[in-house]
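If your schedule permits, I should be very grateful for your opinion on a structural question. What I wish to show you is a protein chain and, alongside it, a tokenised description of its three-dimensional fold. Would you kindly read the sequence against the tokens and tell me how you understand this chain to fold? Here, with my thanks, is the record as I have it:

===
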Amino acid sequence: MTDELSLLEKAALLSGASVWETRAIERAGIRALNLSDGPHGIRKQLGSGDHLGINASAKATCFPTAATVANSWDLDLAMQVGEALGAEAAALDVDVVLGPGLNIKRSPLCGRNFEYFSEDPYLSGKLAGAYVRGIQSQGVSACPKHFAANSQEHRRMASDSVVDERTLREIYLTAFEMVVREAAPKAIMSSYNKVNGEYAHESTHLLQDILRDEWGFDGAVVSDWGGSNDAVQAVKAGGTLEMPSPGLDSARQLLDAVAAGDLTEEQLDVRVAEIRVLVERIDPSLARAVDVEAHHALARRVAEASHVLLKNDDDLLPLASGTRIAVIGDFAETPRYQGAGSSLVNPTRLSSAVEAITASSLDLVTYAQGFRRTGGEDEALATEAVAAARDADVVLLYLGLDETSESEGNDRTHLELPHNQVVLLNRLRQATDRIVVVLSAGSVVEMPWIDDARAVLHGYLGGQAGAEATVAVLTGEVNPSGRLAETYPLHLEDNPSHAYYPGRAETAEYREGLYVGYRYYLTAHAPSLFPFGYGLSYTTFEYSDVAVDDAGITFTVTNTGAVAGAEVAQVYVGRSSTGVHRPVRELKGFRKVALEPGASVTVTVPFDEYTFRHYSASRGAWAVEAGRYWVGVGASVEDIRGEGTVEVAGETATMDGVAELPAYYSGQVAQVSDAEFAQLLGHPIPAVTTERRALGPNDPLLAMHQAPSPLARLAASVLRSLIARAERKGKPDLNLYFLYNMPFRAIGKMTNGAVSQEMVGSIVTLVNGRHLRGLGGLISGFGRNRRASRELEAQLAAASAATPERVSA
């Protein structure tokens, strides 16, 4: 019920009270909620809050990142992580956990890929659903993010994702659909970007037509921090809560819209009801007690299950007890165990490789730093490392990407390891051929150096216990069972989105369509370094008795090796008969099975509502084409061990569009023409302005490089130079990244009411070279904003102190 609330209270409830808190109206039973980042650990900030992880936070278990956990393909472990996150959230008085992140890895360059599961929506959706069920089992709310088509950090708050409806549905929305239908999250976070011309937080198509009407979502939609654009349009479209706090400026805009007849009180009531329901659904008393040691042990088990053995020539691994080893690499002493940005966790404890190896059965002969973490040659360090290698039976070389290479707010520009690390590996290879590269990175790296290593073990970003997990795998205490959740290209240029990524101007064009990741490599017959689903084991597995029928696929997996291990059996489906364009095969199911030597298990993977469908843009609905479908099961998308076919009933298949969409029918999408992309979109490609023009409130600060005002251009240059200086030091300045990509409007959204949107307009006037007019407007706007805010605060306080009868009267 909202009758007891004043119009002002209703408007005020739809934006935050502070960086992390919602507003409370105690007399109406609406308490304040605490929200906190939490994709792989709870980041409850102490003291003054910020959203980028600059200030200190309370200690919490730092679990492996989503990109790491995805390699486990283990839904039970994912749910256990969710349960632990929920319990720790409740213990820290956090009501809403902002995660998991499940955006699709369209390009390996996305700076935030370490926070996302996979390039595949089915795997992402299943894992994210497990997280959500686990988190919410503890009485708190999960908040899956970022909805939707959020695939780059460059201009992330001022970019328009231009994507055809079929690709949007099949690739970028399917994981969210699965989470909503199978896990019922209490909240969802909208993304910063526009989708086909509309900001995600004010898109009726996304938030109402699809999310609520089609999928049945009945929770609250929370804006990403500073991601709200138009408060009135957000309320109309389905955006529930604007975060962090714009003061009462957004409330004032809502009140003005109601007074002008642009917004009805009934529309406000719908959004307020969503806030009330969210408050009512949260019950932290359901949470279990937090066992810090048990959660550390869980973090280790998850990391162990997520390690991917990429190469193991001559069975160099596992290492026998007593093997004399040299440990080389800065990452062995100072681990890279999580990404940089709003997800940064203050771990309860942290293990290093040197410590873990010292406590193991291996004989640590020596440790050498080997290279400078931030790049640049250091002959003394390299010479020391080569000498250490000569004195050992095996070299464990810890390589990886430093903190500046993968960070929220900044996309990567290449896939290479730092040059000094590659040079060191080559020099070590001259001294010994028994080198194991242990890799730390949250995403894909190119490996032209792989021939210099006998074995390569990729731990991704393994959380606070990742170093212990790595040693357990190296020694054979744990048999590696991780399988890649993304394709490793030979070269960056091989990626299908390379020519279009990132969108440098106002738009990001998704010209590759459906052909993301392995969908492209298989369909276009493009080679890759390691295919999707790939990973080695210390044992071997055999598939037999494969049978396909109308209900699903059944097969037997046998451990044919000498040690226990776990296999990830992956089910792929493709259409054999003619029809609409689609990838040659797509993941439609998987099972992870643990087997003792010689043991077998028979597995059935049933077909479900996602198995055969495609989205018909012409009909605006999902459809299943009648015809013959190939179904295969195997150890990776390219390693199929058994297959069959099934006849599926459905609509009559059509080949309409073959002449107009040749690239999409062949999968050769690396260079799609304007005409063909427009045909796929069903409308002209949005125009992009490259000439210098007057800037607006939705332009990012980086656009000041082209601003009419020389002072604005100087400010942009200074900002860029400060970012470059921080990167040279190896310490990314997240505030600077955020500012550089932030639109002017966010100045009003991120300052707790100190800057109104009217004042933002005056700042834009300044940037456009009308200095006196802009400065005058800024000064007068400051006074008006301050007076108006004080008046509204007084009215809100009076309303909150009043009895329900007085308010409703």
Observations:
- Residues 771-801 form the longest helix (31 residues).
